[in-house]
Specification:
It is built from nine helices and four strands. A hairpin with a 2-residue loop joins β1 and β2. α5 runs antiparallel to α7 and α6 crosses α7. The termini are far apart. It is mainly alpha-helical and 202 residues long.
Length: 202
């Protein structure tokens, strides 16, 4: 519980921690945009002393504190400092959260960017015009495991991770196109709901 303006507010600690993590993991596309956690009862941001009180309560109760909260505490609960000091960490988090929670159209676009980048190497033909949302979702689900490596290889601030993910992405895409050699052809990437398409995605 916390007191603010002579009022005592009671919280379930797990809900409060989840909300705090969610605020710090906010993204705009592939960009990290952490925001301040607000009191759910008043919609007013918690003060710095209140954040310290919450954090030390977690320590005192041996709560399994998420890494992002510890990093935020080390930045004195200052979002500006946190965004600057933890930029590489937040960038990788934003990639993972984008793939997990992103808009289907944005995710599909990144999948297409990945395929375009490798189209000459694999000899594939991409035609992404007039594709339904249903088909986009199915294509994304097929390409999701490769998209994380692709985005990490493109945007990670860690040069070792960047090169490792690039090599892994290329290797795994080779295996993917060996398994689905017709993926990306004009007659497959289209909004044709026929039995042939169903077989391709089975």
């Amino acid at each position: 519980e916390l007191m603010s303006n002579n009022t005592i507010y009671k919280f379930k600690i797990t809900n409060l921690v989840n909300l705090w993590v969610e605020c710090l993991n906010k993204i705009d596309g592939l960009y990290a945009k952490p925001i301040s956690i607000k009191n759910p009862y008043t919609n007013i941001p918690f003060t710095e002393p209140q954040l310290y009180k919450i954090y030390f309560f977690l320590l005192y109760t041996n709560f399994n504190i998420p890494e992002i909260l510890t990093k935020f505490m080390r930045c004195k609960f200052n979002l500006t400092i946190f965004s600057a000091e933890e930029f590489p960490y937040l960038k990788e988090n934003s990639i993972l959260n984008f793939v997990k929670h992103g808009n289907v159209h944005d995710l599909f676009e990144e999948c297409m960017n990945m395929l375009y980048e490798y189209s000459n190497h694999f000899g594939i033909i991409i035609n992404d015009v007039d594709i339904s949302l249903r088909v986009k979702k199915r294509y994304f689900l097929m390409l999701k495991p490769y998209l994380i490596n692709y985005l990490m290889g493109k945007y990670s601030c860690n040069p070792v991770k960047k090169q490792t993910n690039k090599r892994r992405n290329k290797k795994e895409l080779i295996n993917f196109f060996n398994r689905f050699p017709r993926f990306g052809r004009n007659d497959i990437i289209s909004d044709i709901e026929d039995e042939q398409e169903e077989i391709i995605f089975s």
